Amino acid sequence: MNKSEKNTNGIFYLLPLLIVGVALLLRLTALGAKSIYVDEGVTVFICQRPIGAIVPLMMEISEVHPPLYFWFINIWINLWKTFRIIIPDYLVWLRLSSVICGVLSVWLTYILSLRLIGKKAALWAAAFLGVSSFHLYYSQELRMYPVLLCLFLGSFILYLKMLEKPSFLLGAGVATVTGAALLTHYYGFYIIFIEFLWSLFLFLSTRKAPTADSGQNIENSDVVKKIGFALLSSVMSVLFFIPWLVYFLKQSHAQDFTLRVNPSLWNIPEIFSYTAYGQAVPPSVNMGIHLFALLGIIPLVIIVMGFFTKGGGEELEGSEGVKYFYTGLGNKLAGIYLFTPLIITMAVSFLTRFHIFEFKYFFVICPALWMLAAYFICSVKPVGVKIFITCLFLLSNFLTVANSQFNSYYYPQDWKRAAMVVKEKKKPGDLVVVHPSMMASPFLFYYNRVDDLVPLDFPQDPRAAALDKCRGIWFVSTPGHPFVSQAGLVNYLFGRFPSEKVMETENYMPSNILRIDYLRVKPEENGIK
């Protein structure tokens, strides 16, 4: 090996570490600046309980997710007692769990990409994911999505290792990691679907493929045996889910999934807009006749071209068993990974009562999106095309990162400010009503008292009887939430009592607007002093 080749290899070793370092710095930036969000508030509300009380509480409040993530955060919260001297900000400590998993997913994307699309494209894929605004946003949120993504990538990496050299230890690893994903989020079942399709595709594509060194055909029996072992390991992960099955059935009956917004065909390109460009886009882009969704056609076209592009024949190095398929098949595997969750989610949402579509859930397909984009960039010949695509993604993500991190107009609801306003102005005898009731958890995070707090959804709720006995009502609501218009509580309260608006936040997304009204129950004690 000559000196220039040594230098090149050295750079390839250093660049992944540099990418991970940049990803970490970006995700640590302004980590505690945004108020805790409603889903984060629910996480804290559940996880601050003793670990044995978590599942009963989940059933009581109709939490729709499996328990593993909540157990993990319960342990993480207890660790704060040890590390609070170093990180005194409780919210920063909580979100750091997601940051660590988000950065780890960038590294795992690089490892997986090495096996699927080669060294150069793997660096590009990891770099794009590292600066991805969409990925960064949810890597700072106290929810299970970064953990789930790490489990996705870990399962896929172990699955490919099983194809190389099957072993009991690797098989147990695939089953365990995939089983952990099933107990973290129900989207974890997509791993099994993806790996089944990978198995089918590889069986059909590689049984006659020449080996990288000898050019001879691989024995069909050897290919089938390896693929069979890998797939069996994936399916065995369901054993980890069986103890939770009873609770899953209770959850599916307790929740009315039809209240969720059902997706439309416009949401398909919109998914690629969010994942490719980020969420905090300028208002002028997000309005109009689905203009933002139309912009998603650009990354969608690039991804499809990456799927059908034939690579330059770069062979995977350092992995014996992957000799029987080339990187030219790896982009097909990335495409299966990308589109399987999208197709299944849309089909289930359209054809059943389970409306499981949420933009944030597609956090798990981000690595596949950037793999295909990177693969196309490395395969396309005109330099101008490479530069245009690279600049498009980098500039758009830096713009939306700046908006989401430093411009409060793009933040979610400011529950910290709302709690401070109520604390400052509230008088003895007043009640605080939070609507919808699920919003009480982030409000409570800052309000820190429950004796005068009433989470309320409907006028018929028995808890509404307390409203007639109070002096006044501090009504904290998110008026843009779709449930608010259906519940009827706003019309009921504002029809009974005179009111005065105290605070209303501005936000580019109507659903993130937060409003506080004071309702005078007793006319003789009206006014806000």
Give a brief rundown of this model.
The chain has 529 residues and is mainly α. The protein has 24 helices and five strands. The protein has two domains: 408 residues, no CATH class; 111 residues, no CATH class.
Describe the structure in your own words.
It contains 24 helices and five strands. It has helices at about 5-30, 40-45, 55-60, 70-85, 90-115, 120-130, 135-140, 145-165, 170-180, 190-205, 220-235, 240, 245-255, 265-275, 285, 290-295, 295-310, 325-350, 365-380, 385-405, 415-425, 440-445, 480-485, 490-495, and strands at about 430-435, 455, 470-475, 500-505, 515-520. The longest helix is centred in the first third of the chain and has 28 residues, at about 90-115. Mean pLDDT is about 90; it is low at about 210-220, about 315-325 and about 525-529. The protein is globular, with a radius of gyration of 25 Å. It is about 60% helix and about 5% strand. α22 (about 440-445) links the parallel β1 (about 430-435) and β2 (about 455). The chain has a five-stranded mixed beta sheet, with helices on both faces. The termini are far apart. The chain is mainly alpha-helical and about 525 residues long. The chain folds into two domains: about 5-410, no CATH class; about 415-525, no CATH class.
List the helices and strands and how they pair.
Elements: H1 3-28, H2 38-47, H3 54-60, H4 68-83, H5 90-117, H6 119-131, H7 133-139, H8 145-164, H9 168-182, H10 189-206, H11 220-235, H12 238-241, H13 245-254, H14 267-277, H15 283-286, H16 291-295, H17 297-308, H18 327-351, H19 366-379, H20 383-406, H21 415-425, E1 430-435, H22 440-447, E2 453-455, E3 472-477, H23 482-487, H24 489-496, E4 499-504, E5 515-520
Parallel strand pairs: 1-2, 1-3
Antiparallel strand pairs: 3-5, 4-5
